[in-house]
Each structure stands twice: as structure tokens, then as C-alpha cells.
Design a protein that fits this description.
The structure is a single chain. The chain is of the alpha/beta class and 264 residues long. It has one domain: Glycerol-3-phosphate (1)-acyltransferase, CATH 3.40.1130. It is built from 8 helices and 10 strands. Strands 1, 2, 3, 4, 5, 7, 8 and 9 form an 8-stranded mixed sheet that branches. Strands 6-10 form a two-stranded parallel sheet.
Amino acid sequence: MQKNTPVLLRFIRLTRLLFHVASGLLQSLVYSYFPLSIQHKMMQHWASGLLSILGIRLQCHGRLPTVEIPCVLMAANHVSWLDVCILMAACPTRFVAKAEINRWPILGRMSRNVGTLFIERAKRADTMRINQQISEVMERGERVTVFPEGTTSDGTQLNHFHASLLQSAVITDALLYPVAIRYRNNTGEICQEAAYLEPSLVLSLQQILSQIRIDAELIFNSPISCGTKNRRELARSSEQAIADALSLPIVHKEAGKFSGLRGG
């Protein structure tokens, strides 16, 4: 039987979280002045601290892309704003996010300072610009992560993968890593409370704080060579790899809601 976190523990977690976010904002102000290797350590340390505060235990499976591999694009299924945190903790990367996040007071500033790429999803013409930006970032040796579903789910299904942002992998002949994300509660069941389906980040955070513990799982599937494939083939291949890893059905239609802090 699943148990909820005592109110006092929730308050302690929330207080620690506020200080941690403030610390992250300060660190982000000087983030760009450090070499890439130090940036990765800063990102990893801050994200790991956040997971610890929230009572989230992270497990990784498969072979993670190393910094020696040129041109790496990661495509992940999208469940929660936590997806960004667990990916940063496991494998520091830059993300693609909707442009609205750039205008958020605190998270927007932090995201901008650490090099998040913002896309105007309402403008189809903006896809070409963001693909070019992703390509340039990968060619400089940095990893980039996109969420091709463009929406969040409750973790019990996989939404259709859109191919538009995978064009950057074709342009650069990158290695595409399909990354499967799953959250379980303290009873071992799919933790739907971790999913970002609430109408606000505050309500979503309340759901997460109510959990005794959340087990987050990252499964890094074998990379896909992109040079001989088009973006639609890459979308179907990565989609199927993640569905198989999570044993989830694929829903080929728009579902859920698009959530900011990531890409797609």
C-alpha cells in the first residue's frame, strides 16, 4: 500500500528546495564563464542535489554517451519536468524548450543561463532555425536532448514521436540515443504523481512532495546512426526502441499537454 510523506517532511523538503533553487540561480549567473567540463560537473552536482531533496532515487541502464563521441542527440519520452533533472544528473546535456519558458521569472533565467535552446512552437518556420542551432551545438561537442512527443504523458503510454527536430541529427550525421524514462512509487508501481499533468508547476510539485520516495529510471538504448536515414525513420526507430524498453503501447495521436522545460 502506498504511503504519503508526512506534512513536516514535506515542509522540510520544500524549504531545502527553495534554498537549492536560489543556489542554482546564483550558479547559473557564472555558468557560462567556466569550461565545458566544469559546466557539466556543476550541472550534474546541482541536479543530483535536487533529486536528493525530493527523495528521488535514480538508476541508469545501458551505455551512456561519453564526451569523446562527437555529435550526440538524445531523444527521450516525456513524463515530467523531472525528466530534465534526472537527465542532467546522469548525462549533462542541453535541452530544447518552448519559448514561453524563457519568459518565466526564475526557471526561465536559469534555463537561459545554462544554454537551453528555445523554440517558438506556434511558428513552423522556427523549426529550421532551431535545427540549425542544435546542429551547431552538437558540432561543438555538446550533447542535446529533445522530447519528440512534444507533450507529457502519465507514464503508462508513449505518444507519437514528431520528426521535426530530428532533422538536426541527419544534418550532422549524429548518433541518436533513444532514452527511456520511467518513474515508480515506493510500492514499485508506475508513479503517475511524478507526471506533469497538473495545470501548474506548483500543483505538480505538491504531488511529488507527497511521495515517500520516487524511483526514477533511465534506459539508454543502443545509438542509431543517422547518416543513411531520414528524420521520419529516426522518429519511428527511436519511438519503437523506447516503447520496447518500457513495454508501453504507442498512441499515434496528440495526447497530454506540452510541458515547457524540455524540447520536442
